[in-house]
Specification:
- It is a single chain.
- The protein is 28% helix and 22% strand.
- By secondary structure, the protein is of the alpha/beta class.
- Helix 3 packs across helix 5.
């Protein structure tokens, strides 16, 4: 069984162009993601998937393998599909390029165990929402699952709403996912849906069409970089970890 890790990183991000190659303590953001990815047990190979030569040049400078994809990919899912057509594997684990604090253990949680590689399997990481402000941050996607941890619905607003009871914890999306090649082909064969267009949440491509997504609870301590303010927070956290000897930028 072959499992590859993929870090999608496009330059023309709507909210924060070029964020994947922003400097964090002497290294580009994607370098930090790549280090966690290659240290995760079960990952055979790892690549950055991009559509911009500037990102390829940075990858080359820091010894990160990359795969050039087209500029016509509307979401990271289509970009992953293009990678699956160029690099053969049984499973593709996506790690968002704006997750420089992601831990290898959170990636390992998404490594499939006993899953048929010929199935149309999709899994996604989730974590307990710890910072109350994240409940109202529309860049942080909230999740509700059924009793078997399969996704029921996702939203940028707080869900579920505490009308009947309040003794529960909100859960939010973690940017680590696992797909079979068949699941990625499903994305290409299926048009963008109504709810996907409203919420602008790519994973609705599966949910709106009755395709299950397994959500895996992980202890990830991460912060996705969606804004320059997020970037400053991450720089401070990583600098503190370097000073304590918990991380290295060498």
């Amino acid at each position: 069984m072959k499992i590859i890790g993929v870090i999608p990183s496009r330059y023309s991000s709507t909210r924060f162009p070029g964020k994947g190659i922003e400097n964090i303590c002497g290294k580009p953001m994607i370098w930090w993601v790549y280090q966690s990815l290659i240290k995760a047990k079960g990952i055979d190979e790892a690549y950055v998937a991009t559509d911009d030569q500037r990102i390829v040049d940075v990858c080359d400078r820091f010894g990160i393998p990359s795969v050039m994809t087209s500029t016509d990919c509307p979401t990271h899912l289509e970009r992953l599909y293009e990678v699956s057509q160029k690099v053969d594997a049984d499973f593709y684990i996506n790690v968002n390029g704006d997750e420089p604090l992601i831990e290898s253990s959170a990636i390992e949680d998404l490594v499939p165990n006993g899953v048929d590689p010929n199935s149309s399997y999709v899994a996604n990481g989730m974590m307990i929402l710890k910072d109350p402000i994240d409940a109202f941050d529309t860049s942080k996607i909230k999740i509700a699952t059924d009793m078997n941890s399969y996704g029921m619905y996702m939203a940028r607003t707080p869900i579920p709403f505490p009308k009947g009871r309040s003794d529960f914890q909100l859960k939010k999306f973690v940017g680590v996912q696992c797909f079979t090649k068949s699941a990625l082909k499903f994305v290409i064969d299926t048009p963008r849906g109504f709810l996907e267009g409203i919420e602008d949440i790519d994973e609705y491509r599966f949910l709106e069409n009755g395709h299950k997504i397994k959500f895996v609870l992980t202890e990830a301590n991460t912060l996705s970089v969606d804004t320059k303010k997020d970037l400053e927070k991450v720089r401070k956290i990583i600098l503190e970890k370097i000073e304590k000897g918990e991380l290295s930028n060498e």
